[in-house]
Amino acid sequence: xxxxxxxxxxxxxxxxxxxxxxxxxxxxxxxxxxxxxxxxxxxxxxxxxxxxxxxxxxxxxxxxxxxxxxxxxxxxxxxxxxxxxxxxxxxxxxxxxxxxxxxxxxxxxxxxxxxxxxxxxxxxxxxxxxxxxxxxxxxxxxxxxxxxxxxxxxxxxxxxxxxxxxx
Length: 167
Fold this sequence. Notes:
By secondary structure, the chain is mostly helical. It has helices at about 35-55, 60-70, 75-85, 90-100, 120-145, 150-165, and strands at about 75, 105-110, 110-120. The chain has a three-stranded antiparallel beta sheet. Helix 1 (about 35-55) crosses helix 5 and helix 2 crosses helix 5 (about 120-145).
């Protein structure tokens, strides 16, 4: 692990329980059992850890999301907004700033004259690769308390939830 990543808070020997507490313990609050609240809390906690790494590198979180999305190839501005969870005006301003930093370029979409694609420059590709490596290290530290099988099931279930609710 590099010094830019977050150290895991738990080890495999501190594995988290995968079941609810016994009936003899204090009752759980509604938000401790409500899926949407649990997903939001987990996302916030895990994201905040990685955002601290980004902050040390002076990379805004939305800029990181753009770099990560475009690392797999150019995307239309509208698709990019949906993937980074930002509204179109915010995405446009962000792309303007990233163009000024020579991290991305806009280009016409050969499939549609009405769409504009955004792509990484060589500098953008280099920065994206560096940050993705850090993100993967962070992800590994987050999943460390879980067996590889449990981690895979967890990620698969999240993908299924996203697919089901993206329709």
